[in-house]
Design goal:
The structure holds 2 protein chains of 2 kinds.
Chain A (H helix, E strand, L loop, with lengths): L10 E5 L1 E9 L4 H14 L3 E7 L14 E9 L12 E4 L2 H7 L8 E5 L5 H6 L16 E5 L1 H8 L7 H6 L1 H12 L5 H10 L4 H20 L5 E5 L7 E7 H16 L3 E5 L6 H9 L5 E5 L3 H13 L3 E6 L1 H17 L3 E7 L16 H6 L8 E4 L5 H16 L2 E7 H5 L1 E5 L45 E3 L14 H17 L9 E2 L4 E8 L3 H13 L4 E6 L1 E3 L5 H6 L1 E8 L4 H10 L4 E4 L8 H14 L1
Parallel strand pairs in A: 1-8, 2-5, 5-6, 6-7, 10-11, 10-12, 12-13, 13-15, 14-15, 19-20, 19-22, 22-23
Antiparallel strand pairs in A: 2-4, 3-4, 9-16, 14-21, 18-20
Chain B lengths: L24 H15 L6 E5 L14 E4 L5 H11 L4 E7 H7 L1 H10 L3 E7 L34 H7 L4 E6 L3 H13 L4 E6 L3 H4 L4 H4 L4 H4 E4 L6 E2 L5 E6 L2 E6 L17 H8 L8 E8 L5 H12 L7 H6 L4 E3 L1
Parallel strand pairs in B: 1-2, 1-3, 3-4, 4-6, 5-6, 7-11
Antiparallel strand pairs in B: 5-11, 8-9, 9-10
Helix pairs in contact in B: 1-6, 3-4, 5-10
The chains are: A alpha/beta, B alpha/beta.
The structure holds thiamine diphosphate.
Chain lengths: 618, 333
Amino acid sequence: MNKSPSKKEVKISELNSITIRFAGDSGDGIQLVGHQFANATAIAGNDLSTLPDYPSEVRSPAGSLGGVSGFQISFGDESVKTPGTKPNVLIVMNPAALAVNIKNVDKGSVIIANSDAFNQGALEKAGYSSNPLEDGTLANYRVLPVPVNTLTENTLKDSGLTRSQILKCKNFYMLGIMYWMYGLPLEPTVNWIKIKFKKTPELAKANQLVLAAGSAYSEATEMFDARFQIKKSPVAPGNYRNLTGNEAAAYALITAAKLLKRKLFYGSYPITPATEILQTLAKHRANDVVVFQTEDEIAAICASIGASFAGCLAATGTSGPGLSLKTEAMGLAVITELPLVIVNVQRGGPSTGLPTKTEQSDLLQSVYGRHGESPLVVLAASSPADCFTTTLEAARIAVKYMTPVIVLSNAYLSNGSEPFRIPKLKELPKFDVPRLPEPGQFKPYMRNPETLARPWAYAGLKGYEHRIGGLEKSDGDGAVSHDPENHELMSKLRAEKIARVAADIPPTKVYGALEGDLLVVGWGSTFGAITQAVNEARRTGLQVSSAHVKYMNPLPPDLGTVMRRFRKILVPEENFGQFRMMLRAAYALEPIGLNKVQGQALNSDEILVKIKEILRGS
Amino acid sequence: MENTKLTARDFAPSQPVKWCPGCGDFAILAQVHKTMAAMGLPHEKYVVVSGIGCSSRFPYYVNTYGVHSIHGRAPAVASGIKLSNPELSVWVVTGDGDGLSIGGNHMLHAIRRNIGLKILLFNNRIYAMTKGQASPTTQLGTKTKTTPMGTIDYPFNPARFAIGLDCTFVARGLDTDMALTSRILERAAGHKGTAFVEIFQKCLPFSEKEFDDLKDPQKKDDLTIKVEHGKPLIFGKNRNKGIVFRNFRSEIVEFEAGSIPAEVAVYDETNAEMAYLISGFQAPEFPIPFGVFRASEKPSYEELYYNQVAAVGDTKGNELETLLSGPDAWEVK
Ligand SMILES: Cc1ncc(C[n+]2csc(CCOP(=O)(O)OP(=O)(O)O)c2C)c(N)n1
């Protein structure tokens, strides 16, 4: 570490992990600063997990409580599995940001405030009658007021920029302070600034100056008497990149299509929090990536079904309300037995519900929410980077079994980010399209004896002309059939085909002992919180293990056996017990539920409390 | 490659066609087989996509690739196919209920994009498959099973709907007029963007009388007018009536047969305003128009799409790792 020139001795403490939260007005560039900080920590070798949190409505008035934007990041060694529950350090750019976030910060934590923003008007807008930085209300916190506006203006007084241009740079001043505190390198952000402001060199220069000034100020001032060194996580060598869950899903789709050597077709209609998949793919439009923004969700899935019939790897993405609209067409994809990936980034419902907040409450809709006997495959991603793995797996299954596959993500995963190790081509799964029979032998509904998949003969291919559609088809030859026995047979075949996907499901991993008092069974985005809670519980000597389910339909074949080795089962989920109900139905077990429907992720503390409650009670 | 010329029979189905005997759909089906054979593409390049309804059984009756999809969504399914593979000749068959009621939104947007689909909207002014309810083209006051006192919703005029959307090809045909339907389909087949063809189609059980007057040899010449590019707009049993456009209004003038006055409009299918005026003709004030109302050129959606990506350059060969890395990757040794 650099020797500090300050008079006071700077204490460097080593921590396993830390959680910090940037908060400010929507216009303060909080998300940008958060992402830069996340990248810097990642490059420094930390494990991390982030949670952007911005207001749902169209921009609220500046300085208002409704307009506060936040970005939380937890970083450190490999114990980091979630963006953290409560921040150890809260950075506030204005009084509203303080008012909104203070209730979630423990006494004794650090609050860094842009003191220049705590003026009469701003305080009133935030509902303060006096200045909390000065009136003693924050006496139990370590408050570090920094006049960021003034310092930024001083730094840039000779820049020739206008006052409003100068003040736009203040977020980088704060970022510079944070880089110093955590001993993080400035270079990645400097490089980013150079690219971002290539067309406006004066702004590039200003932002760099401000960033460096923030860091230098911390070095020089006596106020910051502590800096922290975060333990690094032992990461596998390779190329890394910080990806959000939505970006990861988008890249997985491109990857899957490349492995398949087919075009990717993505039909979608914007909806929070799924839109970034569409936007990310739109940037990669090319001959082999077709992105189609349709008039609504129904058109999106229908166009994708058409594309699948034309031989593309087809996908569509949406969130809860959009998934409902796609329902009828999903039935068409089931009966036509075409491969299709459907990403559902869940949010709070019903209806518009909490459109920017996270939930896990579309599970039953995804598994059962169609008319008729209409089985399809459902997978759930467990972390932002796992959205890549899971979406890729969904595509592989869709093609191998000729079926639609739903990928469940949610707002927590789609906006959150973590380091993603860029896979090498040879590490990726094989994508073999089952071979077509000779045209003379071809029948649209003949089946592969092992997978029961029908052949994927696609429009344009000579010799395989055939017609498919929503009407029931006769087994094998695919002629329209109203024969009652045939309908039952076809319904059974479609169900059996999905059941056979179980053959592809790897054995369930149990984290901890293979038997004991309690097994915490999770699915999807609660992975991080459950793992952290179980870790914590085991450290205190409790006999608890966990297992996390990705394959929601069909369920892992060994799941029942795994669960029966434990006396009790706890299922934490962000709904009123949807997975618990599925487990009860499938295994006649009585799991205990931990349920939260608040538009917020379950956190490890809540799970830990429940674990203790169950084990104490037993 | 051996390319034996296909005939209409090559497109005929191997399974029996199940429409009510006497349904107008049979005649249209025969014309489509003929048109496809004449278009000269190999079998596998055709795709017929439909929604739900009697007419939407169509794909099963054309020996090519086909999708019988869900109610109203054929234009969306077809758009996905066309955009995936612009080499395919993609035909949409839909009904007045399917295409303009439940599927109105998709119809609207397919036309807006000028995507290369040949959309055949069979207009029998009734929901036939569900057995006789009012459709969006049922004429005002008509008594149906759901409107026992007569409809009070104003009906759509499908051709005018398409022209109002600046559709690049709009025509109207009649199931019993083979020559006309054949001519229209042939031109639709050759059109680059969206071709929208409305075909009046008799439904025997539920709208049998709907178009009778237009077919009655005694009345039809006075009740209908055929528009043809470059030809004067004349009609009548004695070819002694003409259409004049004055002050943005249409008027009928009568003249002595054989001496068409100069003021009678010569039809111009590239003129959107003329197409709009013609498409609004309602009986009995005006003769019902048939023929190609509008034919104009504009880049198609798929053309714009692939031109745009061509400008970026071919990315097929790009290394996956390069793509995944993006600009801000870092290496851990
Ligand atoms: C979602 C949905 N709603 C309703 C129906 C019932 N339905 C089937 S066909 C049809 C009307 C079709 O009318 P039209 O498009 O005029 O076709 P026609 O049968 O007259 O050829 C309706 C309402 C359906 N199949 N699906």
